[in-house]
Specification:
The chain is α+β, with helices and mostly antiparallel strands. The chain is built from 8 helices and 4 strands; from the N terminus they run βαβαββαααααα. Helices cover 51% and strands 7% of the residues. It binds glutathione.
Length: 219
Amino acid sequence: MSRTDAGLKVYGMSTSGNCHKVKLLLQQLGARYEWHEVDSADGQTRTAAFLALNPNGKVPVLQRNDGRVLTESNAILYWLAEGTPFLPADGWQRAQALSWMFFEQYSHEPYVAVARFISGWTPMDSPRRAELPRLRERADDALAVMERHLQAQAWFTGSDYGIADIALFAYTAVAGDGGIRLSLYPAVERWLQAVREQPAFVAMPLPDAQVQARFSASV
Ligand SMILES: N[C@@H](CCC(=O)N[C@@H](CS)C(=O)NCC(=O)O)C(=O)O
């Protein structure tokens, strides 16, 4: 039996890139799973029941049918992809995929995702908006690193599409929401399109109209 055959539950917020990574891989694996929507903007990641599941108070969370829980989006991708074409068998290539996934969490997501969050989910007069110029600068640094890699290679997970691509795709695809100009990175744009053309690809749903209006007003 494969890892994705038995009673998986995912607790996630559909408009979060970290959560969308997990949904995208599960869809592409053809897995059966239950999605439980958890709205972090509404405080649902801070309830006693949710903190019992993940004391760190964050989605996504994967729960197996025996109750065991795995947190952290990229760890979830890694566990789900084991033994599938989404993770290379070769040790060096696997480590390369991990390298890009750690890059995503330390040098990319804290800037690209946080610029999007502040742009869309904070009031227009929020003092947090003063952070946006610096976040966009650092996001550009991360995109420049990706651009350099993609000028020479098609994918981030070794020679084929896989979990490092999924991890990096999630927030890169919506970087424009945070005021980051993807048109400066043609190789990144080509790679985004190549990811969208993978079998069983699903796009992240758009957030509500108020959030979208704030994106437009923030650029
Ligand atoms: N490093 C974590 C980050 C998860 C994360 O930041 N989740 C956000 C949504 S994107 C969240 O749950 N925030 C709610 C909160 O902090 O209360 C991962 O990759 O899973």
